[in-house]
Amino acid sequence: MAGQLARGWSMAKASFSVLKHCPKLTVFPVISGAVLLLTVGLIVLSLLPQAHLLYPITRPIWDKLGANPSGQIVFYVAAFAVIYLLTVIAVFFNVALIHCALRCHAGQEPSVREGIAAATARLPQILGWALVAATVGIVLNVFEGVLRDKLGFIGSLIGGLFEFGWTVVTYFVLPVLVTEGLGPIAAIKRSSTILREKWGESLAGETRFGLLGFLFGLQAVALFFIGLAVELSYGSTAALGLGALLMAVGVVYGLATIVVLQALSTIFQAGLYLYATTGQVPATLDPVVVQGAFRPKP
Questions:
Q1: Closest CA to 269 of 143, 277, 298, 69
Q2: Is the pTM value of this prediction over 0.85?
Q3: CA gap 282, 266 in Å, rounded
Q4: 8-22, 44-58, 141-155, 219-233: range with lowest mean pLDDT
């Protein structure tokens, strides 16, 4: 784990040098998060009044739905539709981010409007890939749940390996969508081919950014709960103010961590794609870090 953390830190530092020259890249995770929260909020708000006012009337209906297979199908279809919508939003802004990251690696100045336009031009591919990603994600979660119920920890481990394999195989799907405009199935095959031809089986760098996110997230959570403890333990005005400040810092720190690491991981992903497809490491990244990002198959 120490070695993975060190490599992840090297990747983050290499990507951060690009982010300093193209700070606009952080706009896309912010917009994506805001749109996702707004969408979820609107869905929840649209349901709350009906749920509150009509609950005595709708409870028998929900009970029947729970016992009726067709009612369950309607519920699951609606749930999938929500998941699909959220996936489309996330993929759309990731595509915009990758487009601009590729321009940064080419020494060009990206713009938010240009990134949105590029993602809009790939909307059919985005809709198709979001459908595949949402479906496979649900299937893998269900599969892992079944294995966990049957085999306990071993089942969770096996399910996690399947999920990890899917993540690796699809690592370059979004860059392929951006640059080659392929459909979802063709993009998966292309991503797998790129990995196999360049590295064989590999360990995706994204997992190391995930480890960094976990560690920085722990710091944000610690700040928040320290502030909460101060709020609950001391009754003075100064203590209450300090507790509120620490909680606010923890929340802001956590959100900033998500935004920055999303931008950094995408910058590095775009650089890896250029290296894998052209054989040339972008001048914006450290060749040693890029070439060592994946572990070749023995």
A1: 277
A2: no
A3: 14
A4: 44-58
